[in-house]
Amino acid sequence: MMRSGKASECRRVHGTALGPLLVDRATQSVLVAGRPVRLTRKEFDLLVLLGARLGETCTRREILGALWSGSDGAARTLEVHLASLRSKVGLFGLIETVRGVGYRMVPLPVQLSGFVER
Q1: CATH number for the domain harbouring residue 29
Q2: Is residue 43 part of a domain?
């Protein structure tokens, strides 16, 4: 299990920690509560894209343009990748659907993290 000091170090050097979620861009790895989560490249890129704009809504068009070269045919693909990402990460409420607009990643309560702040 990863100690909170280690998560802070990783956040500064390589990635982002959000509650129990740790995303390390340098190693393309994701941990949830200290456990590795295997994501496809597109799932990882989607997670990074939403995490980079934490709390902000990313429109479907922005996501499709960034990850699928703006192909309108990829709309269903986005939904499938998003459903798979949500399932694998398993953090209910982490990624919200903004009906008719897109998606946003929201901060999770600290008590879900499993890390004790001292």
Answers
A1: 1.10.10.10
A2: yes
